[in-house]
């Protein structure tokens, strides 16, 4: 399985990079996982609704350019579907079983994802009703992907 994590913004925090690198290393025996970082748009605090949509649309164009037609897209969004770790594992297993070998998880910038990206998504995923920094979501997501493979493989990691 080829998994991409398409994310807006650069990851600067070393502690997050170290955590992500550890899970990426662990995942090499299960899947090819790559992280695609895309530039974010400048978004000052006092943007109008229209300006916010423009920022999300520009970021959305960058995201869509990285997604091929045969990629199964899962958009991370606060209003997305909440799933247990076991359900995510089942979903990934089902995708692999039915020939969907390209999966992309999409993490938007500080304003979220554009409507066009949400429409392109085959599924949505929410980790909580709480808001998390999108940089931290990368670490949480890659850990959950690793956990899913361990669940599917019957490994002792998931307890």
TrEMBL record:
Q: Which residues bind S-adenosyl-L-methionine?
A: 76, 108, 127-132
**What is the protein name for this chain?**
Ribosomal RNA large subunit methyltransferase H
Query: What organism is this sequence from?
Result: Metabacillus herbersteinensis
- Gene symbol here is rlmH
Question: What EC number(s) is this enzyme filed under?
Answer: 2.1.1.177
**A GO molecular function for this record?**
methyltransferase activity
Q: Which residues form a coiled coil?
A: none
Gene3D superfamilies associated with the record: 3.40.1280.10
Q: Does the keyword Nuclease apply?
A: no
Chief site of localization: cytoplasm
